[in-house]
Amino acid sequence: MDPLEMMSSPTATRPMLGMTILVVEDSLFASEAMRLLCLRSGARIRRADCLRSARRHLEVYRPSAVIIDMGLPDGSGAELIEQLSQATPRVAVVAAVSGDPGSEAAARNAGADCFMSKPMTNLGVFQRTLLTHMPPEYRMTGPRPVSDERVEPDPVAYKDDMAHAAEILREAEDDAVVAYLGQFLRGVAHCAGDTGLGIAADRLDRARVQGMPLRPELARLDGLLQERIGERLAI
């Protein structure tokens, strides 16, 4: 553990005090949930929105733990998980997170210590998942209360994700961009419980895979995104 971190010892209510967690996540809404979970736990949080940004962070400091989304704009989170799991010295905990349960196998195969399912909002589950894999010096001794508190991300972060998706949609001219757009929207819609947007993202992905015209699905998605961005202006 870093000497500066040793100055802050974990407590029963803040069991991650002294830890620095790097969250590699492209969704602001999902990142906001992680920020609140870290804040309630006493940990410092740093965020990267892509693989390239995460690697820049890791050139400057070594976090206590890294939480990596499996679907990122410039590649799969499995790439970074494999890199970190084989690095020396190794980050204490390399965790994967995804709204797709099917991605857990890929995360484990890449070397992830643990896997979190989105939406991750339960404080007790978050703490237990990470602390179980941390070395002893990061963990307090003796019993501590297990919190069942749930965090509620600011809905404005969700609207910001919608604005970001609308920007991506305007540039959705090749297969890779369309694939990422569908993946991004499915993940964010899953975290926010936005069933209508999730269905529209699934329709786009099916049309892309089956070689069907994309224009109608992109137009439908654009309308849904503009509705949600409009709601943002009314807040």
Automatic annotation (TrEMBL):
Keyword Glycosyltransferase: no
Keywords: Phosphoprotein
Residues annotated as domain Response regulatory: 20-133
Biological process annotations from GO: phosphorelay signal transduction system
Organism, as annotated: Pseudooceanicola sediminis
Protein name: Response regulator
SMART domains: REC
One Pfam family matching this protein: Response_reg
Annotated SUPFAM superfamilies: CheY-like (SSF52172)
Presence of keyword Phosphoprotein: yes
Positions carrying 4-aspartylphosphate: 69
